[in-house]
Specification:
It comes from Vreelandella gomseomensis. Its cofactor is pyridoxal 5'-phosphate. With 267 residues, the protein is an alpha+beta fold. The chain is 19% helix and 30% strand. It folds into two domains: 93 residues, Aminotransferase class 4, branched-chain amino acid transferase, N-terminal domain (D-amino Acid Aminotransferase, Chain A, domain 1); 154 residues, D-amino Acid Aminotransferase, Chain A, domain 2, CATH 3.20.10. It contains seven helices and 13 strands. The mean pLDDT is 96.
Length: 267
């Protein structure tokens, strides 16, 4: 059960010392639950936090549904205590959760979205690559780079100018008939929808340099809550339009991704 407040000395609040998951519920049932649990447990392992047991995690969603679609957020922190950055000898991890109503955006599925390249570059840190830890300050700074609704998302490259992700979604592209996504062994969040597509061999991890981005056949953004958004226009950080794409009539990524979320394969 979620507690209504966080103590001042909670290490998640003080240092980002914890992990979180954001999960789509369809009529009360969590989509991609096994992959969310797997990533949360991997994050706890990397940070050396004792993970909650699976019954405690399952209790976060085992309640009557509040509508057709909801979003469940789960946060696990190391708990309270410790002097400075040193972790306490005995820590009691804290589990918190919240469910809120959600409405997907079918217009983005059908018409696509405009995105911009962010000026901020992600730092490489393999120890944290892939997990969804609580320190998302790079994403917060990147999201402050634009206010106009013409851009629904911002694309992030790392310090070596390799494309990594968007501020809150994974990136996918098609080239020569293959569906690909950035390999996230240096930085970035390995999304659960991305993991499901890789496991099913629909998508393969690859490298994509920033200066190659505008030349691919097609681009998409996707995550386990919003589904798949085709990219219809790509803008530079200076505001120049680099490329436009027509949304596909039969979207090959939506066809394999949306059934994993309970969304229609052809919106």
């Amino acid at each position: 059960m979620s507690q209504p407040w966080v103590p001042f000395d909670d290490r998640g609040l003080s240092y980002g010392d914890g992990v979180f998951e954001t999960i789509l519920l369809c009529q009360g049932r969590p989509m991609l639950w096994a992959l969310h649990v797997k990533r949360l447990l991997e994050g706890c392992r990397r940070l050396a936090i004792d993970p909650p047991d699976e019954s405690a995690l399952a209790a976060t969603w085992q309640a009557p549904p509040g509508g057709e679609w909801e979003v469940l957020k789960i946060i696990v922190t190391r708990g309270s205590g410790g002097r400075g950055y040193a972790v306490p000898e005995v820590a009691t991890p804290r589990l918190m959760s919240r469910r809120v109503p959600f409405q997907p955006d079918p217009s983005a599925w059908r018409q696509g979205v405009g995105v911009r390249i962010c000026s901020l570059r992600l730092a490489r840190q393999p120890c944290l690559a892939g997990i969804k830890h609580l320190n998302r300050l790079e994403n917060v700074l990147a999201r402050q780079e634009w206010q106009t609704p013409a851009y629904r998302e911002g694309l992030l490259a790392d310090s070596h100018d390799m494309v990594v992700e968007a501020t809150s979604m994974n990136l996918f592209w098609q080239q020569e008939g293959r569906l690909m996504t950035p390999a996230l062994d240096q930085c970035g969040v390995a999304g659960t929808l991305r993991a499901g597509l890789i496991e099913a061999q629909h998508v393969v991890p690859a490298q994509l340099a920033l200066d190659e981005l505008a030349a691919v056949n097609r681009l998409w953004l996707a995550n386990s809550v919003q589904g798949v958004w085709p990219i219809s226009a790509l803008w530079s950080s200076e505001g120049a339009c680099l490329r436009r794409w027509e949304p596909p009539q039969d979207d090959p990524l939506q066809a394999v991704a949306h059934p994993l979320l309970g969304y229609p394969a052809t919106p």
